[in-house]
């Protein structure tokens, strides 16, 4: 299991760690209109899944803005950003920030994504920070669990993986 800290304090991740080559497990999360989405709803495209603890923090906001900008330039790539924030908070934040190139999903209700991808923080009921790239068949081609949740992911590695994935 990935070793992750939050503000320097080790935390426990629940679920099974995903690695490159694994078939991505299905999950259910809510969009900002409270509609359920599963991974199966987004089949047939390369997907970048950007995972943040909360869009209301500085690093999470920067990460979401960065992937929103990158999404505009990636062909046949869908970007999903997932946090455990309430869908209402995500909707308000996206409207205020002009985020419109990615799909924002909330794992608040079921914590399904957190458990399926092994990135849910047991002690906080938040998601840790990470990035996953999936090919059009759902195979994971890039998996990053950021060791310190308050730091940025490796954007270039994720974008390069998305461009190279079919």
Textual characterization of the structure:
The protein is an alpha+beta fold and 166 residues long. The chain has helices spanning 58-71, 87-97, 112-116, 155-164, and strands at residues 4-6, 9-11, 13-14, 28-31, 36-38, 46-51, 77-83, 103-106, 120-121, 126-127, 130-134, 140-145. The strands form three sheets. Strands 5-4-8-7-6-11-12 form a seven-stranded mixed sheet, with helices on one face. Helix 2 links the parallel strand 7 (77-83) and strand 8. Keywords: Antioxidant, Disulfide bond, Oxidoreductase, Peroxidase, Redox-active center. Disulfide bonds join 60-94.
Tell me the number of structural domains.
Answer: 1
Order of helices and strands: EEEEEEHEHEHEEEEH
How helical, in percent, are the residues? 10-25%
Kindly report the average pLDDT value: 96
Name the shape in a single word: globular
Radius of gyration: 14 Å
DSSP E strands, number: 12
Largest sheet: 7 strands, mixed
How far the N terminus sits from the C terminus, by CA atoms, comes to 28 Å
The CATH topology comes to: Glutaredoxin
- The CATH class designation is Alpha Beta
Q: Output the strand order for the largest sheet.
A: 5-4-8-7-6-11-12
User: What is the level-2 CATH architecture name?
Assistant: 3-Layer(aba) Sandwich
- Number of helical segments with 4 or more residues: 4
What percent of residues are in strands?
A: 25-35%
Q: CATH H-level name... which superfamily?
A: Glutaredoxin
- Which runs of at least 5 residues are low in confidence (pLDDT < 50)? none
